Amino acid sequence: MNEFGRLEAAQRYTVPGLERGLRILTAFTRREPVLSAPELARRLSIPRSTVFRLLSTLEQLGLVERDESGRDYRLGTGALRLGFECLASKELTELGRPILERLRDITGCSCNLVVRDGRSVVYVARAVVQTPYANTVHLGTRLPAHATLFGRVLLRDLSFEKLQQLYPEEQLQAATPKTPATVAQLYRLIQTDRAHDYVFDQGYFEPNISTLAVPVFGQAGKVVAALGITVSGNKHTPENITELARSACEAADDLSGLLDHVAASRH
What we know:
Blueprint: H1 3-12, H2 16-27, E1 34-35, H3 37-44, H4 48-60, E2 64-66, E3 73-75, H5 77-107, E4 110-117, E5 120-127, E6 142-144, H6 149-154, H7 160-166, H8 183-194, E7 199-202, E8 209-217, E9 223-232, H9 238-265
Antiparallel strand pairs: 1-3, 2-3, 4-5, 4-9, 5-6, 7-8, 8-9
Helix pairs in contact: 2-4, 3-4, 5-9
């Protein structure tokens, strides 16, 4: 088949609506994060009425959202999550794995790297020690964000309004008696967490399991992941927790620095 024939065959399988929608998403850049529908129509040579329908569809899917003016658009959390899933599957895990392994060797505890996907947290990298509690979660395990310390760390950038949109129900499903019952309670916990370098609790999601979680920051100081230490049992001294927290914070700082360096090197 010649080049013309291959091109013609490829075009037969092209979905114009999907192509136009993806072209809209890729029009948003770091330099131009906010665009209007008329501007998108002009740049992409797409009829305005079609652009408005496409934007409406993308908005419903969470891939774009209105800016503060209510007229223009920017990428939504859905599109950002898609981009970060790629990062999580490559750079984040590749850069984070040796850091987790070093942290595990220093602390003697299982260490995890977790990202948020909507209302869930997802384990994307682990460095475990062989204990009876080492296999309670695996790579790809999803847990409810509102009921875990990792989730509280990963939700910290959301405003109260955004948190309400994510959890519109009046009562949050409880995993343990420590789970916040309402969005307002969850938000208050998150705000308290923000005043500290780490969060720690015993039996917050599972009995006899203690978790210490630290935010990992990307560009612009946004939380992109949570790094944590899982400790079995409930015999912890304040000195021990302070030492674990110091090591975890240093590891999270190292990973944050690497992620920022990789992102900056692309410009």
